[in-house]
Specification:
Layout: H1 2-11, H2 16-70, E1 73-77, H3 80-84, E2 102-103, E3 105-111, E4 123-131, E5 138-146, H4 158-161, H5 165-172, E6 183-194, E7 201-204, E8 208-218, E9 223-232
Antiparallel strand pairs: 1-3, 2-7, 3-4, 4-5, 5-6, 6-8, 7-8, 8-9
């Protein structure tokens, strides 16, 4: 009778060894599931960031192709601040970069028909595309569009016509900018790194602009990148 009860009691539960084995199996199963979840999260992150990069590339390509084909002239500068005023001489246009030089600021100039009153062609609108890089050589690519040039400025140099840094800052600070504003500002690439001697735009023989950069998305732990190359050729080159 005593032996029978002991047998029944043992059949009602797990021994310590059985419990430890079950815990070990559960731990292995959980670690496998966690690994699958981490891998799935990593794949999802990479896929999303690659889609974002492709979106940036499409956006930049569309903007540059449309504007480059219709622009009459282009100018490349080392940076936005150097274009507005050349510290070396104080002469407008002194900061323009020539054949074989690269910079982070591209200006596209659009002209109207010539008149008998002035020599040359009046500037009707301008577009500036610049990379706002930090010390690590990474930064967003922004584009301002001066859609209307006043009649009092249309025969001035591009450096005199282009908006100042303070004017750009004012536009950037607007909470509800309108697309119809005379001056607009957009960020067309979230983060980029220049590849042409550390810069984004390369002047090729004063006839075309080579855009060579690296598009970046993600963070320091998981950074996804893709290179970007294209050439635009405004009708009049740099003159």
């Amino acid at each position: 009778m005593k032996s029978s009860l002991s047998s029944v009691d043992r059949s009602r539960g797990f021994t310590l060894l059985e419990a430890l084995i079950a815990l070990a199996i559960s731990g292995v199963a959980l670690s496998i599931c966690a690994g699958f979840l981490v891998d799935a999260a990593r794949v999802t992150f990479v896929s999303e960031e690659k889609l974002n990069i492709n979106g940036d590339i499409r956006n930049l390509t569309n903007e540059l192709l449309d504007l480059g084909r219709s622009a009459d002239r282009f100018y490349v500068y080392d940076s936005y601040s150097s274009a507005v005023y050349a510290p070396s001489s104080g002469v407008y246009g002194d900061a323009r970069l020539g054949d074989g030089q690269s910079g982070d600021f591209l200006v596209l100039v659009f002209e109207g028909a010539s008149t008998s009153s002035f020599s040359g062609y009046p500037v009707t609108e301008m577009v500036g595309i610049y990379r706002d890089a930090d010390s690590s050589n990474e930064g967003p690519v922004k584009m301002w569009h001066l859609q209307t040039v006043s009649s009092s400025e249309e025969y001035l140099t591009p450096e005199e016509i282009m908006p100042t840094l303070s004017e750009i800052a004012t536009v950037e600070a607007k909470s509800n900018p309108s697309p119809s504003d005379p001056l607009t500002l957009d960020t067309i690439v979230e983060l980029a790194e220049g590849q042409a001697n550390g810069n984004l735009f390369y002047n090729f023989k004063d006839r075309s602009v080579m855009v060579n950069g690296k598009i970046i998305h993600g963070n320091d732990a998981k950074m996804i990148t893709d290179t970007y190359n294209m050439t635009i050729k405004p009708r009049g080159g740099q003159n």
